[in-house]
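Thread amino acids onto this structure.
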């Protein structure tokens, strides 16, 4: 069978020969001068440095009407200059109605109801990865790294900006230091550049170099900066020391903790950067959205720790790195004999330190290396008869490594190798996984061909377990009509979960897609997307039909920016679920379903906006259904204050799923399940450096079982009316965070966080709302107050300060002698 799949892979790669000649993309360029004296960054372009600066102008509309020249009433001119420290931008943006310029204050790295000015800089001019800098008309900074159109806004850099609203528009002035940029070490630089401006009240966006929305990623359409030469880049070394204090009260007990540590960034070269975290402190990371998980797979949570989010675009290649494994749950469980009970089982392992090195050579080779070390962890087990407590190691000292090599070629193609490795000290499980990835876009940027293979090795005490994944696909990525065909298979023993995240295994999947879209406004619509998908899923070994799915979904946006859409999905032949039994080789038969949904959102330019959806699964079995309802209103009281509310409601009737094992018997249950989630978020922004933020979430899910079954070998369920039902369950979790943040200096912040958290787990269901809440609030609560101070130190500024101090001290005796 594998021979057939490898032939399909080879056949798909044959399409590489279909590459067409490149379309000529017009690229503007600007030749910028070196200045002797830097301008003051104050949003007023009256410094001598700006007088003879060249001007980038003639912006072109990108959205919604692609290719239309910017109107004279919104004429935009940008002056660009440079010196030995960095590059400067001065943008004048006309507006015939300056009182309508949108200036909502937000937290850093957020954009609300705002006009904004946008810069993309690509030091390698390879049209694949850029650094993105946005300043809103309210003066709020937003930065990110963009790779082939995918944005990573976890990256935070220290740069300088000011804005000024004028009688005929607004002005943005920015200084971007070299030490946060990446570019080759050569005498003459040639960088990629694009700039954009958004007018919020009309939701129009204009770019300096025209971006054709028919094909290719945004970064493909960069213009160019010329004229930068003979720059002496400063030493790229910065420190981020911090101190923090915590007061935690839980179940009547209060404890105090004080921490201190350091983050370090060092530019090994102009292209490569070392990031290191010493004595980590993640106590103020946002809470996880915990849920009642009755599925066959674990829940994947977002990474909340800044170090693991920032600058990780190389490490995300192939989706083989799931950073939550580092410092997560221990890999082993304690052994418990009769008469013993576990009184303490660690939920997390302490991180000792972490380091990452990343960058890209002049020839386009990206290199990334990540390493982290975690501490030992121990469980405590008590002898019920003697009361004696013993400890057992459940995680040894562990080393985590990720290595990435990513070679770019052409304008939008790459070949990548990724390796992850986990080494545990002593007689514990080790693991290794390696992936190879090829993505080739033809010269005309109309077709993309991709293929990948991954292998996983788990080194157990008595054996090594190997598994593999293979993927291949071809897709048309241009024009109104889009197509894709894809093959994806995984063997049974594929497992990257020591440092990655994987769920389904032992399958082969065939995927087909056709899409149609409007690329220019028509009639009353700004855009329209129609998508059709086919998915055929089979068990790989032994072969077994799993399901066949047809999906249609749509999206429409009107000229008034009202969005709506919907779709249908059906599995007409039912499903042989190979995962829910939790044992390899078994399956359970589920009836087919028809799913239909609609969604809508109102105009987000308005103070009151609303979005919501309703999704109804109707199974081909009487009385069996599931409904998903989501409502999210939001209101902007002023440019400083906004609130949003979220309601999620999911009743599910006659749901069937695994509940237990009884010897060799697999027990299923039929349940009615209700899930309700309420959330509130709010911001009060004092100015573009000080904010107050609130996040609240209450989640409830309860399952009430009405029937129990035994799973037969043929996948059918046989009811067992005499089996005792002990499986009803109710789960609550409550989280409240109130956070005050003050960016008191560039890159430096004080945060004060109050946190209230509690949860409850009860093996019964069907309580009233009051009974449920009474039980929840009878559980122990966590109340925590923490303060964290971090300060950004730039080596060059420290060095210059000491140099100026020494110069001043040397001059003092001369002044005294002259004065006498």
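Threaded sequence (820 positions):
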């Amino acid at each position: 069978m594998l021979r057939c799949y490898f032939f399909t892979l080879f056949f798909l790669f044959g399409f590489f020969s279909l590459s067409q000649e490149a379309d000529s993309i017009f690229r503007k360029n600007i030749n910028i001068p070196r200045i002797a004296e830097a301008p003051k960054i104050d949003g007023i372009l009256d410094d001598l440095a700006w007088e003879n600066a060249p001007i980038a102008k003639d912006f072109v509309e990108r959205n919604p009407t692609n290719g239309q020249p910017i109107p004279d009433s919104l004429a935009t001119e940008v002056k660009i200059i440079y010196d030995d420290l960095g590059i400067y931008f001065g943008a004048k943006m006309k507006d015939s109605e300056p009182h309508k310029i949108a200036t909502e204050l937000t937290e850093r790295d957020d954009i609300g109801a705002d006009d904004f000015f946008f810069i993309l800089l690509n030091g390698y001019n390879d049209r694949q990865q850029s650094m993105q800098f946005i300043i809103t008309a309210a003066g709020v900074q937003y930065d990110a790294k963009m790779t082939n159109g995918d944005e990573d806004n976890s990256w935070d850099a220290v740069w300088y900006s000011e804005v000024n609203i004028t009688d005929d528009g607004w002005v943005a002035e920015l200084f971007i230091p070299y030490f946060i940029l990446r570019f080759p070490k050569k005498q003459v630089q040639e960088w990629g550049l694009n700039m954009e401006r958004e007018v919020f009240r009309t939701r129009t966006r204009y770019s300096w170099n025209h971006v054709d929305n028919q094909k290719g990623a945004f970064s493909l359409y960069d213009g160019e900066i010329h004229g930068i030469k003979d720059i002496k880049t400063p030493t790229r070394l910065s420190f981020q020391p911090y101190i923090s204090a915590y007061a935690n009260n839980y179940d009547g007990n209060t404890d105090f903790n004080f921490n201190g540590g350091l983050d370090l960034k060092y530019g090994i070269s102009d292209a490569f950067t070392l990031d290191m975290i010493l004595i980590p402190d993640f106590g103020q990371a946002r809470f996880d959205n915990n849920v009642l998980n009755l599925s066959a797979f674990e829940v994947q949570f977002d990474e909340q720790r800044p170090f693991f989010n920032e600058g990780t675009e190389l490490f995300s290649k192939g989706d083989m790195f799931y950073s939550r494994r580092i410092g997560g749950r221990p890999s082993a469980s304690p052994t418990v004999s009769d008469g013993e009970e576990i009184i303490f089982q660690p939920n997390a392992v302490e991180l000792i330190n972490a380091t990452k090195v990343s960058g890209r050579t002049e020839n386009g080779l990206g290199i990334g290396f990540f390493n982290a070390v975690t501490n030992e962890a121990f469980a405590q087990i008590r002898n019920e008869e003697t009361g004696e407590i013993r400890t057992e190691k459940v995680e040894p000292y562990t080393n985590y490594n990720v290595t990435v090599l990513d070679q770019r070629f052409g304008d939008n193609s790459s070949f990548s190798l990724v390796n992850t490795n986990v080494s545990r000290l002593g007689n514990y499980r080790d693991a290794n996984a390696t992936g190879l990835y090829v993505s080739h876009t033809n010269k005309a940027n109309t077709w993309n061909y991709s293929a990948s293979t991954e292998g996983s090795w788990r080194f157990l005490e008595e054996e090594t377990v190997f598994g593999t994944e293979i993927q291949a696909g071809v897709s048309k990525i241009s024009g109104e009509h889009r197509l894709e065909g894809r093959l994806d298979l995984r063997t049974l023993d594929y497992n990257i979960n020591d440092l990655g995240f994987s769920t389904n295994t032992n399958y082969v999947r065939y995927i087909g897609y056709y899409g149609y879209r409007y690329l220019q406004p028509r009639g009353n619509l700004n855009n329209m997307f129609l998508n059709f998908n086919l998915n055929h899923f089979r068990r790989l070994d032994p072969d077994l039909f799993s399901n066949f799915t047809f999906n249609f979904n749509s999206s429409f946006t009107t000229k008034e920016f009202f969005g709506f859409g919907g779709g249908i999905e059906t599995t007409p032949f039912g499903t042989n679920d190979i995962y829910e039994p939790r044992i390899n080789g078994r399956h359970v038969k589920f009836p087919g379903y028809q799913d239909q949904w609609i969604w809508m959102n109102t105009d987000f330019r308005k103070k009151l906006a609303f979005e919501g959806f309703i999704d109804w699964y109707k199974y081909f079995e009487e009385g069996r259904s599931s409904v998903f309802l989501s409502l999210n209103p939001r209101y902007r009281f002023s440019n400083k204050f906004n609130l949003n509310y979220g309601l999620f409601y999911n009743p599910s009737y006659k749901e069937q799923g695994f509940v237990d094992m009884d010897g060799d018997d697999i027990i299923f249950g039929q349940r009615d399940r209700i899930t309700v989630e309420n959330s509130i978020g709010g911001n009060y922004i004092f100015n573009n450096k000080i904010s107050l933020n609130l996040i609240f979430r209450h989640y409830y899910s309860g399952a009430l079982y009405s029937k129990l079954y035994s799973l037969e070998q043929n996948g059918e369920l046989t009811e067992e009316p005499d089996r005792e039902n002990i499986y009803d369950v109710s789960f609550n979790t409550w989280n409240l965070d109130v956070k005050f943040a003050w960016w008191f200096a560039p890159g430096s912040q004080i945060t004060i966080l109050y946190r209230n958290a509690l949860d409850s787990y009860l093996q019964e269901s069907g309580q009233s709302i009051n009974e449920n809440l009474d039980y929840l609030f009878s559980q122990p609560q966590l109340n925590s107050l923490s303060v964290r101070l971090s300060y950004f130190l730039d080596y060059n500024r420290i060095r210059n300060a000491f140099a100026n101090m020494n110069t001043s001290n040397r001059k003092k005796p001369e002044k005294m002698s002259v004065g006498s």
